[in-house]
Amino acid sequence: MGSQHRSGTAPADAPEPVLDSAPGPVPEPLTVGIEEELLLIDPATRTPSPHGPQLVGEASGELGDRISTELTRYQVELRTDPHICLKEADDQIRSTRRTAARAAARLGLRIASTGTPVHGQAAPVPMTPGARYAQSVAHFRALDDEQIVCACHIHVGLPDPRDAVHVSNHLRPWLPTLTALTANSPFWAGRDTGYASWRTTTWGRWPVAGPPPYFESPAHFDDLVRTLLAAEALIDRGGLYWDVRPSHHLPTIEIRVADAALTPDDTLLLTAVVRALTATALAAVRAGEAAPRPAPEVLRAASWRAARDGLSGKGIDPLTGDLVAQVVLVEKLLNTVTPALRRHEDLDLVREQWRRLRTEGNGADRQRAAHRQRSSAQDVVDYIVSATCRH
After folding, report:
1. How confident is the model at residue 28 (pLDDT cuts 50, 70, 90)?
2. What pLDDT does residue 52 have?
3. End-to-end Cα distance, the chain
4. CA angle, residues 59, 62, 66, in degrees to nearest 5
5. Model confidence over 51-88: pLDDT tens digits?
6. What is the arithmetic mean of pLDDT over 155-167?
7. Does 48 sit behind a cis peptide bond, omega within 30 degrees of 0 on the bond before it?
8. Are 156 and 251 in contact (CB under 8 A)?
9. pTM reported for the whole predicted model
10. By CB count within 10 A, which of 14, 141, 198, 287 is most buried?
């Protein structure tokens, strides 16, 4: 896109662009890599513990670069290698969590996979040392003060970055449904927020976050990013906190919409669905199909509703604006990606895990069920810790 659109917006009467993705068939099976942000917990107080760098040092001998520090010292990030076979990815998710848990135990700590801590800490939070984190605090100020939030990011291999831009357009209408499916952060500062994904709500305060815009072309994407950098809404490309983005350092598209998953099974379900969505979108791109374009205001409202109600209530269909039972929207998503799930041999896995969620609920539902036993926030923390490494 030319310099006349430096603002990153396309004229309203712009013609539908000719897709400039790579020619040829969809390169299946697609690889997936998973990044999981976890909290460290003091087992005596059940509050977050600021020993992330120490845990990385303790576990790096076994995990190498599959564990790293995060923005705050309350957190660490666990990563898998790229995988084609989800059974191998599942094994690595579980073994990495167990290894990190053992290392935490040697430090007298626990790990917990939840989008927000049940017990919050007084702001500002202790930041991990490093030039980039210091720059973030100086630039974004109090936005960093409450960022004790954890997400699960799925990278799907797309070697051509042009494909990633077009696939992002096709994924946009499904982002609220993914939020509802994976919501796992109902508690904050010791109380129930009334939201299934409070992390989604707090994360939306960042200047470049939430559902991404529709990109008219890869050039439009590049132009918009340059504009945001020049405007200092970003300190670097790593600060593109949209729910889905072309990775700035890997040949992948990164789906970032989900809370940290309570159990490995929850992570695996998300991974299978995201890969199938990406494969379905890529096939549409290669076929020259235009992506749906929900109104940004409706898409934002649908994301808010999904974060509030999770699977238990109604959601907004971004393409119609209608209120629909959220489980119906999930079924619509799964029906849409069934051919891709079948091609990747993940259909039985997803059907089994979806039946489980229909019975047990998502992570937020299960956290609340733990709280109902004795109305105890301490019980919720203990439940999350036990579920994090559940076999």
Report:
1. confident
2. 97
3. 50
4. 75
5. 999 999 999 999 999 999 998 999 999 999 999 999 99
6. 95
7. no
8. no
9. 0.90
10. 198
DSSP characters for 83-99?
BSSHHHHHHHHHHHHHH
Q: Over the Cα atoms of the chain, what is R_g?
A: 20
Q: For residue 256, give every residue at least 6 positions away whose Cβ sits within 8 Å of its Cβ, in sequence order, or none.
A: 151, 153, 241, 242, 243, 244, 245
Q: Is 145 exposed, middle or buried (0-12, 13-18, 19+ CB in 10 A)?
A: middle
φ/ψ (deg, to 5) at 100: -65, -40
Write down the residue that tokens 């809370």 correspond to.
259
Q: Give the C-alpha separation, 289 to 293, whole Å.
A: 12
**DSSP code per residue over 362-375:** -HHHHHHHHHHHHT
Task: Specify the pLDDT at position 141.
Answer: 55
Number of H helices and number of E strands within the chain? Answer: 13, 13
Contacts of residue 158, defined as CB under 8 A and 6 or more positions apart, other chains included, come to: 30, 164, 167, 246, 251, 252, 253, 278, 282
What does the CA dihedral 120, 122, 126, 132 come to, rounded to 10 degrees?
Answer: 90
- The DSSP string of 318-335 is TTT--EEEHHHHHHHHHH
Question: Is the pLDDT assigned to residue 22 strictly greater than 90?
Answer: no
Looking at the chain, how many residues does it have? 391
Tokens at 146, concatenated: 């409450």
Beta strands 209-210; 187-188: pairing state: unpaired
Per the DSSP assignment, residues forming a β-bridge with 39 are: 75, 112
